[in-house]
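Q: Convert this sequence to structure tokens.
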Amino acid sequence: MKDNRIAVIGMSFKYPHIDSMGELVKYLEAGEFVPADGWKERGALLHVPEYDKVSGLAPMMTGIEYFDSRFFKTVQKETLEMSPEMKLALTHSVLAVYDSGYSLADIREHECGMVLACSSTAADYRELTPEGSTTAYLDTRETMVGCRLSYYFGFRGPFFALDSTCSSSLLSVKQACDALISGDADMMLAGGVQLFLPRNAKRAHELFLGTEAVKDKYIPFDEKAVNLKNGEGAGFIMLKRYDEAVRDNDNIYGIISGCGICGTRAEGRISPYATDGVSQCRAIHRAWEKAGVTADDITEIEAHGSATDVGDESEVNGLALALNDRKNTEKVILTSVKSNIGHTSQCAGISGVIKTLTGFVNDTAYPIANFTEPKRSLDFEGAHLLPIGEPVRFAPGKRRVAGVSGYGLNSLNVHVIVENSAKYVPDSREADELNRVLKLSAITETSFRAYVEKVKQAAADVPDINDFIYTLNRGRDDFGIRAAVYFENRQQLLDELEKVKGTSFGEVNEKVTISGDAPAKAAFEAICAGKTVDFADYYKNSSYRRIHTVPYQFDKLYSWIVDKEDIAPETVDTAGNISTETIDVRSEMMKIWQSVLETEEEIADEDTFFELGGNSMLASVLIESVNDRFGSELEFGDIYTYSAFGEMCGHIEESAY
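A:
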């Protein structure tokens, strides 16, 4: 029977305050939500001082204005007109390739492709462009990100962008796996990018659906869960057929053994945007069938975790249906990375996969951040679920089968089964003869120095020096600035790295093969003479393995369409609240309800918000609009207390006096 398992061999990601696995683990272990800051910096980039009005709505990534155009060989005009999503996708795709232990030259020799999910800030970003440009129009369209990546990487496999809203990046994983299973590609990148670039406070409120109701926490499945809180991020993984990854001695984060997708039925839903547990269960069962697992095999669920009453209820109900026949007495751990980084929309599903893989690396299931009390209205016990507020440790080698869920606002449900794999066991012996040479290369002097420093730090602690040197020699590209060090032991390697300097040899020359009794010395001398060693041939009879280690170090070049604007807090124009004594509450409330519900029909006192077609997301907009208009302090949960039009009007009238 054909083995359709897919290995995850590399990954790269960025979230607010998180640029590495170590930083991600810090928030996961502590069960904390990243600080919801970055708004002042974003306002400075967009020249929008009123961003201070909406600060705290969600955590914003900083540093999106930087891009190493010299690495990607883009001219200034082209660089400035590229969307920030495109720049993030290029950067983290390259980093995911290097994390897998392959060079870009390797990728160009394979049938490699990519599936990408990407937010659309095209209109907002193009408004910064001083004049119209065809290039700007093309390079700010989300569908062109794949085109740019294909041009740079030389993709010969399939590449395309897709959009299924909140389930998009998890769908990209499924589609990338399908390309590998069908034979359309040998390696695939999959991932997503989510940014928000609202040009004013009104646009920010529209994009964030009134999520200022969530003051500082996002806690799905908790009694205090009140609503989603958005976030930003970029995440990419490198995929390869599992049997080939084992054959090629790749280091494997985890195994994708099955993916399931399905639409959402209409029956029982209060609106087109409402979720449905029965449909979610169908996607889960399809993933299980392809993975060859049952309810008894599941150890944990990385949930979609919307943190809304309707969303959490339908998700738990769907899991209860899926796990109904479970005989295993151990509870299935329930968690969600959204509690740490927010709902990253186009990047949400891939973020769940990245968190799960990080947990595999550290033999840990990470908790729901800030979780204290399971929502009392949900039957976790009957569903065989255990939402956790503290890390759960697994014995090394224990089999883990995790389900990662992504449910789109467009009604597409995606579920992916991710399993842990046998861990790489390093060998602590000194470097073999082949590995007594280390090549070092970069495009600029600054990136070269940064790379050498990172290599030196890693070399001091890496358990297996042989696999470390092999990966850096075999899996890194040859650029214009090159150097090499020759050494006989680890301490000598550190000493040589301390004094190494790069030499500019210009374009890479034709590769040379190395032979003889002292190959490392010969390779060292060849590199110092400006030649390029064919390390694929050099290691052809070896059995070293690729490991996750130091990638290329990009230069931080300012690459934003306009200069930053220095925004001082005192320049912010804060409007005062409107007194309810001078307005007709019912008349104004009628306008708000009609606007949110998109109706011109008269609303009666006994009509309830949900009966009229409202849902949890529209409820956020309603609460935010009412508070803005009347200076009230309604919270999201009040939509259930005052769900009838007359009840809400009465409450606002009473609270005004």
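The mean pLDDT is 88.
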